[in-house]
Every structure is written in C-alpha cells, then in structure tokens.
Amino acid sequence: MQDLLARLTSGEPRALARAISVVEEGAADADALLSTVFPKTGRAMVLGVTGSPGAGKSSLVDRLIHHYRRAERRVGVVAIDPSSAYSGGAILGDRIRMQEHASDDGVFIRSMATRGHLGGLAKTTSDVVDLMDAAGYDPILIETVGVGQDEIDVVRAADIVVVLLVPGMGDDIQAIKAGILEIADLFVVNKSDRPGADRLIADLDFVLGLVHGIPGEKPQILKTVAIRDEGVVEMRDAIDTLYEGRIDRRRERRRERAKSRFHAILAERLTARVLHDALGEGEESSIIDAIADRKTDPYRAVERILASVKVTS
Amino acid sequence: MQDLLARLTSGEPRALARAISVVEEGAADADALLSTVFPKTGRAMVLGVTGSPGAGKSSLVDRLIHHYRRAERRVGVVAIDPSSAYSGGAILGDRIRMQEHASDDGVFIRSMATRGHLGGLAKTTSDVVDLMDAAGYDPILIETVGVGQDEIDVVRAADIVVVLLVPGMGDDIQAIKAGILEIADLFVVNKSDRPGADRLIADLDFVLGLVHGIPGEKPQILKTVAIRDEGVVEMRDAIDTLYEGRIDRRRERRRERAKSRFHAILAERLTARVLHDALGEGEESSIIDAIADRKTDPYRAVERILASVKVTS
Question: Which has more pLDDT, B136 or A247?
C-alpha cells in the first residue's frame, strides 16, 4: 500500500492503473488510499468535454491531447461510456483509442461504464480524477455524451465545461438544453466546414442570449474541424485563458464538488452502517418483502430505523 | 389532509394534481400522505416506454392511450423530460399533449423535469406512480428518452419495459445498448413503413440473441406506424399478455423497486438527520471549505461523523 502510494505519486502509470482498480472495485483499502492521496490533489485543471454521439468528440479530444503533449503536459482522460450492464464497459473504444497513445507514458486513458458504481458515477469519477491528479496528470479530461442527469453531474464537477456541437443534427440544440446549457463555459462547433455551421452558431448564440441575462457572461463559441486539426490550438488556448481568468468560479465549483462528494460518501457509509447495526440477519429482506406486498410502507419502515439512531456530539 | 386523501382515492383528478404537488415540493405532509396512500397501491400495471427523441414516442403513447380508453381503462402518464435546469420543466410539451385529452377525466398526464428531485428522479417517479395508482389509474405509463442512468433506473421500476426504435437513425441500436437492452420486455419498431425497417429488425434480433442466452427469453419485436394507428392494438394486447404471463418477473421487479425505494428514503432521511444532530451551526460549511482547500479529505470527515452515531436495537 505504502509502496503503491509512492509509485503513484511519482507518476508511474502502472501504479495509477492499480490504484484505479482498487477504487473501482471498492476494495477495503480504497478509503485509506483516497484519504492519503487527497492532500496531493487539487492541482490539475479538470476539463469536462461533452457532446452527442457523432459530434466527433473522440477526434477532437485526441487532437487536444496531441497539442497538450506538444506543450509537454501529461494528460489524463476519463471516458464515460453509456455502456451496457451486460458488456460491462466499452472496452473496445478504450482499446482503439489507446493504440494512438499506447507508447506515450504522458497520456493515461481510462474508460468507465455508466453502470454499477457504488455511490454513483459522479463519486467514482471524482475518485479517479483525484488519483490521476496525485499522479501528476494535468490537465485531466472527463469525456461524456452528456445526456443523463448522472452524466451532467459528472461534467458539472469539472473546472471548465466544453460542449461540442455539430451542424446538421437537428436535435442538437434541443438535446443540449438538457441542463448543460447553463453550466457550459465554452461551446465548440466541430465539423464546422459542413453546411449549416453558421446557422447553428447563430441559433446557439440566440439561445445563449436568453439563458445568460448578463451579456458578459455569455460563453464563447469556437469553430473546429478536428480531423484536419483546424481550430484545436485556439480551443486549447481559449480553455487555458478561461481557467486562468475565472478563479472565483473555479473556487465555487470546487466547493460544490467538495459538498456533493461529502454528502455522497456520508449517505453511502451511513446507510450501510445503520442497516448493519440496526437490523438482524434476514430482517432487511423481510422489510423489503413487506413493502413489496404493501404490508408496510417505506416511509414507516425508515421511521422505525431512524428511531434507533442516536447522535452523540 | 384527510379530505385530500378521500378525494384522491375516489379518483378526483384535481385532488391527484394537488397530491402530486405536495410530494414534488417535498412539503412536510408528503411523507404522511405517501404513507397513508401506500396500502391502496400496487394494483396498476406500470408500463415503461422509452426511445430516442424522434422515434415517435409521443404519437405512439397517444394512440396507446386512445386504445386503453376504448377499453374503458383510466390511464395515468408520467412523462420524464430531460429539461433544462433553467426552464424548470417541459411545460410546453405537457400543454400540447394535454389538449388532446383535456376534456377526458380518464387520462391524467404529468410531465416531470429530470432535474432537482430530492432523493432522485426514480424516487419521485415512484411516488407519483403511487398517487396515480391510489387514484385508480391503470395502466400507468412512464415515458422517458431513456438515455441517462437515472432514466434507466426510472424505467427499470416498471412492470413492463417497452423500447421504441425507428429505422434510419444509425445510432439507434448503439444508443439502446446503454443498459436498456437487458431490461426490455418488448421492442417496437415505429415508422415501420420507412426503408430500413426490416434491416433494423434483423440487426436487433441478432443483438438480442447475443444478450439473451436462452432463446425463450428473447423479447418480441413488433412493428407500428403510430400516425396511421397501425399495429397499436396489437402492441397493447402484447403488453397485456406479457403482464399476465410474467407473474414471477413482475414480483421480482416489484421487490427490486421496494428495495431501491427503501434504500433511497433511508439514505436521504438518515443523512439529513445525522448532519443536523452531529454538526453545529456553520460546521458543515467549514467541513466543506476544508475539503475544497484539501485541508481534510471527505473520507476522514465522514469517519469523524460516523463515530458519533450509535445504533440501539
């Protein structure tokens, strides 16, 4: 454990991979590991990148990684895949993308399935970001398709949120309205050589004007063509400028992240502990049966358990 | 309160609307209301309908309502809208759809935004379904775009899960793989007069064969053209047959629903209670600041609070 920690903080990719597995599997050591690592975190810029499937997210992220590498920064990527419970993760996507950066120790990519995270996807993502941060990766990119509430919560935790759009997908602005419009710091219209790009920008600009009352707060809209590497350096620079310029907002977001994390961990641990201490063998199962059969209701059942909980200060 | 309850269980739509508001606002009476109503629930068939935007979900649901009404059943609909935090709910969609059934007391439609539900969207949806159930609506349709984890959890709670597909949207099968493939009981290819319908069915059939090892468990695939009312009666009948035939599965789902509900309510109430009792004025805020500044870590902070919790049996 002590050895793993030393290797992790010295930036060894295999130690990072091992630490992530410990955390994802919820092993007994996970808490101690995260707790020890925590003071060494908070240094990396955390960048959330979201956009519909087909927006060219992977290509753009790959180009962005390339340009960060040219600036000699070590890049961590957490790719959230809306993958099947059945397949247990988009291993394929991971493998394909790893090939390009496989020989580069300065890039660490980890795919995570949306399903089956103890305490929620947002919590696991924060834990993995912390581990990458402690291992010296900076920036750390969180990549999602940005559709569900859980995913929005994940991206919300980033210092800077970039939303990717693409011309010619009618639903796009409507889909983006799903809670992400308000938290985006930067919009990027990719494949901007396609017909309809200017129209999309005009529409988006109009909608952003409605959402952001104060003109100065309206996020910038950039154009890229990722596969030809057009506009990507400008995008990287715009992100850096935003990051440097918005210290207050960054602080506010980090506080928000700290809060939701504290609550998520507390709720999870507290529930497990109280269920364990308050109920005997098979008692929880009986309660659930009684609720399913409408012999009791969940509110009453919870009240009864709460009555046995005492808090001493 | 007693009056509201009496009017609710006699099936008065205005009482139902009022009760839903009480629950959604998390008013002090909400628990008592849900607790009292609970024994009167568990009678309705709960139907989850999910599909990408553009699959013609609203048209199909409207036709389905029409045919349930012809069979003199009172229909409840919970429409989950991936709406903006800013706009606070897709009121517009609600209004448009209400027009068609506005004069019909036998149809009750409620739109819910995905954001901002205390204890989660799945919990609020279950509460609203209970209220509709107690008011005598049966079936109750839960309609979502089925993309995020939170939405999958919502649909998962239904007795029967119907997944809607449409030809000519390349991403469809891939998008559906997001955890819903395994829990679907019935697939419906809408707009099945379009080119590509047979190809889609063949693809889907192939994928379902991979997911469901046992041939007998492979869900049926139906064809509809909702706007011409083709195949909708057959769909309704297939749903009824599934519902009647799968008593074991239904029981299992209801037990699962009871369990997740019990846990969600327990986690929420327990956390609120312990935070209130364990921490003095401003203390929680200090802890969050300390975490944000990396002076402490959330795991240690939670441990300290857990140490003050005693469970007496």
Answer: B136
Contact A177 B263 (CB under 8 A): no
Q: How far, in Å, CA of B305 to CA of B287, rounded? A: 11
Structure-model confidence comparison of residues B54 and A232, the more confident one? A232
> CB-CB: which of B35, B287, B311 is closest to A277?
B311
- pLDDT of res. A260: 86
Chain A residues with CB under 8 Å of B54 CB are 171
CA distances to A125, A307, B102, B141, B288 from B138, rounded to whole Å, are 40, 36, 18, 9, 46
Contacts of A181 in chain B (CB under 8 A): 84, 86
Instruction: Compute CA B282 distance to the chain's CA centroid, rounded to the nearest angstrom.
Output: 37
Q: How far apart are CA B176 and CA B156, in angstroms?
A: 14
pLDDT digits (tens, 9 = 90+) for A177-224: 556 677 789 999 999 999 989 988 998 888 888 777 676 778 999 999
Token pair 């961990």 is found at A265
Q: Where are the domains of chain A?
A: 42-246
Residue given tokens 């504290």 in the structure block: A262
Asked whether the beta carbons of residue B297 and residue A83 sit closer than 8 angstroms, the reply is no
Instruction: Give which of A50, A211, A297 to mutate to test B binding, by max B Cβ within 10 Å.
Output: A297
Burial class (CB in 10 A: 0-12, 13-18, 19+), B178: buried
Smallest CA–CA separation between A258 and chain B, in Å? 5
- The number of residues in chain A equals 313
Q: Torsions phi, psi of B129, nearest 5? A: -60, -45
- Length of chain B in terms of residues written: 313
Residues 6+ positions from A312 with CB-CB distance below 8 Å: B308, B310
Pairs of CB atoms within 8 A across A/B: 230
pLDDT of residue A90: 41
Q: Tokens representing A67? A: 């340009």
DSSP string, B130-158: HHHHHTT--SEEEEE---SHHHHHHHHTS
Query: What pLDDT does residue B91 have?
Result: 41
- β-strands A309-311, B309-311 pairing: antiparallel
Q: Is the pLDDT of residue A95 over 50?
A: no
Between the CA of residue A78 and those of A31, A108, A205, A274, what are the distances in Å?
20, 9, 29, 33
How high is the mean pLDDT of chain B?
A: 84
B41-246: CATH number: 3.40.50.300
What separation in angstroms does the CA of B189 have from each of A253, B79, B261?
43, 20, 32
- Among partner residues B41, B148, B251, which is closest to A151 by beta-carbon distance? B148
Strands A140-144 and A46-51, bridge-based pairing: parallel
Q: What is the pLDDT of residues A98-140, one digit of tens each?
A: 556 667 889 999 888 766 565 677 788 899 999 999 999 999 9
Fold type of domain A42-246: Rossmann fold (3.40.50)
Contact A273 B302 (CB under 8 A): no
Q: Which of A34, A82, A306 sits opposite B178 (nearest CB)?
A: A82
Torsions phi, psi for A107 (to 5 deg) = -125, 125
Q: Which residues contact A195 (CB under 8 A, 6 or more apart)?
A: A167, A168
Ranges of H-type helices in chain B:
2-9, 13-24, 30-37, 57-70, 91-101, 121-134, 149-156, 172-176, 197-211, 232-245, 247-278, 283-292, 298-306
Q: What's the complex ipTM?
A: 0.82
Q: How confident is the model at residue A166 (pLDDT cuts 50, 70, 90)?
A: confident
